Amino acid sequence: MDFLNPPQRAACLHTQGPLLVLAGAGSGKTRVIVEKIAHLIASGRMPAKRIAAITFTNKSAKEMRERLAKRLKGDAAEGLTICTFHALGLKFLQIEHAAVGLKRGFSIFDADDAAAQIKDLLPGVKPDAVEAAKSLISRAKNAGLSPEEAMAAARSTREQEAAALYARYQARLTTFNAVDFDDLIRLPVQILEGNHEIALAWRERIGYLLVDECQDTNDAQYRLLKVLAGPRGDFTCVGDDDQSIYAWRGANPDNLLQMAQDYPKLEIIKLEQNYRCSNRVLRAANALIANNPHEHLKKLWSDQPDGDRIRIWECRDNEHEAEKVAAEISFLHTGKQAPWSDFCILFRGNHQSRALEKALQLLRVPYHLTGGTAFLERQEVKDALSWLRLVANPDDDTAFLRAVQSPKREVGATSLAKLAEMAQHMGVPMSRAAESMGVLKALPARAANGLSAFTDVVRDLRDQTKLLSAKDLLLRLNERSGLLADLRSQCKDEAGFQRRKANLDELADWFDGGPRGGNVGDLAAQLALLSRNDKDDGGNQVRLMSLHAAKGLEFRYVFIVGCEDGTLPHEISVEEGNLAEERRLMYVGITRAKQALWLSYSRETRRFREKVRLMPSRFLDELPASELQRDGADPVADAERKKERASAGLAAIQAMFD
Ligand code: ATP
Ligand code: MG
To answer: Which positions fall inside the UvrD-like helicase ATP-binding domain (predicted)?
Structure first.
């Protein structure tokens, strides 16, 4: 523990009772978690298999595991749980599923599957309304409410309608032996809170809990933490209220305050030294975040050198901006021998990456766009996964419907509708109904033949699960299902086919190392949890990502593009006067930079072929001028624009009275 400062060390040595480490960016919170796990194991206070650490993404879980592997000798870390809240919930349900009436091999519905169900329950409504209904259900689930509790809490007719829809939606999931992402937290909470014995058993199983980025836990996750930790509360939470950027997804930083009430013995340790950023970057970040209302302002300091001034670039438009960024990166890469992976370009919205990608490609700069590959959303990958889901879970009608039509066979929409009707009548899932001779006889001969051929393949694959490893099963599935042959016929040339086949091979690789004879459904479920942000090939490439995805990371050189009013802060937040969260987002972005930082904005953009003038982000005005170096900006024009901004506001008010 030599490489920890005194408060960090105190946080590591505090092993009994609840502890909250509340500290600013780059102060070593994540490092405390890693060192503390190492300490718990090495000192013999807690065996690895009784420790669970919760991270915000699967990617950070992987990183933490790698860091620990280096820290600990041999297989000392064997059995340690490091995962996200969702993955922990999944692990829990895979053991305790019976308590909520789920069967082994249950499916996880992704956002599209969930939306499809709601669409089905609300025939004829617009996609926007489906999304709205989905987010109402999700909000109830994130608040930890069951359908009955949501109904009891409903105040208005609209809320009652939403609660009724929630109940019908949930009934569907139960029929399909499926859960959605939100259920992975809500159901474990329901089981643990309602069943003392199961709760005691899990407290025995998890002797010590650690949570990183806990400012972004939602209410259901906080309840899960509480019920797992029990009244003794042997846990360490680390977080920074100034980096809470997921309110839109239900995160509630007030949980940090709630924690002090729920655990009167809660010890709070603050860390004040930042080890990441140059002093200028840190001073700028401190000045910015001081504009948010605070109960206690954190005083972060750093003994790093001052470093270069923060460059503020005014650009003509976003293409010009992208060219400048790409050129600068290319220049530094050559001039300072900096590896590509030292650079990161951050933006508010994913659409902003297009111009950057073009400019980087032009200069042959290798880059990796986080969240851009959408691997799990590719058609062939989704097809293979729904086959797997069906093999593991015969009740999953959604998977059945997708699998039976991929590849297309002689079973048309009318036959499927008829099959669904008969299945409902018989009270069995569609895949079971399809096995019944009586049902097949009621269908046209071609459909019946197609269906029974399909059923044979599924049954055959189901038998193979006991013999083959998960990877081999998937390879077999690709052949037997006809997916590969179909893919070949869809592609115009061999190269195209190989490209898409590579996706299926990659999927099989993800299953590599899975147990032979294990439950493929469990693996498929785990895979469904991997979000798009989690796939990072980690190579020597420039990183492009959204500010949200950059949480917890650090880079030597950071560029934040699109620092314009309306982009960052986002238009909607400006309209709603909700700037604090946007400012935190900017704070997260700035504090990713270790050595140098560039903030850039465009003077104009095109909207519907019209040129529109843009204003520099108001956050730039909140940074201390002494830390900045403005390039390309014209102070006179700047002042003019500010006047314009003020008079635009006046004009809007005037217009209301005209
Ligand atoms: P964030 O709020 O962005 O998640 P954090 O508080 O989790 O940041 P870390 O990522 O743990 O901070 O640490 C930031 C950097 O400082 C890392 O490179 C880490 O290795 C380094 N660091 C942390 N503590 C120390 C220390 N005591 N001595 C030297 N370096 C340290
Ligand atoms: Mg961290």
So the answer is: 2-278
Q: Residue 44, class by beta-carbon neighbours within 10 Å (0-12 exposed, 13-18 middle, 19+ buried)?
A: exposed
Nearest CA to ligand 1 atom 14: 26
Q: What is the pLDDT of residue 616?
A: 95
Closest atom of ligand 1 to 4 CA is: 27
Annotate 24-63 with three-state secondary structure.
CCCCCHHHHHHHHHHHHHHCCCCCHHHEEEEECCHHHHHH
**Set 63, 213, 380, 564: catalytic member:** 213
Looking at residue 421, its amino acid is: E
Q: Per-residue DSSP letters for 112-128? A: HHHHHHHHHHSTT--HH
Distance of CA 189 to the CA centre of its chain: 20
Digit-coded pLDDT (tens) for 36-48: 999 999 999 999 9
How many CB atoms are closer than 10 A to CB 441? 9
The ipTM (two decimal places) reads 0.99
> How far apart are alpha carbons 624 and 573 in whole angstroms?
24
- Read off the pTM: 0.85
Q: Is 592 a residue of the active site?
A: yes
For residue 210, pLDDT over 90 is answered with yes
Tell me: the pLDDT tens digits for 302-324? 999 999 999 999 999 999 999 99
Instruction: List, as ranges, residues with CB under 5 A of the ion ligand 2.
Output: 29-30, 552
| Contact by Cβ (8 Å): 599, 630 | no
Could you confirm whether 172 is annotated as catalytic? no
Residues with CB under 6 A from ligand 1: 3-5, 8, 25-31, 240, 243, 275-276, 552, 554
Candidates 212, 534, 564, 581; catalytic one: 212
CA of 36 to the centre of ligand 1 (A): 14
Ligand 1 atom nearest 31 alpha carbon: 11
Atom of ligand 1 nearest to the CA of 591: 3
Only one residue has tokens 């996880």, namely 108
Could you tell me the distance, in angstroms and rounded to a whole number, from the CA of residue 553 to the centre of ligand 1? 10
User: 353 among the known binding-site residues?
Assistant: no
pLDDT digits 0-9 by tens, 392-419? 889 988 899 899 988 988 888 888 889 9
Q: Check whether 562 is labelled as a binding-site residue.
A: no
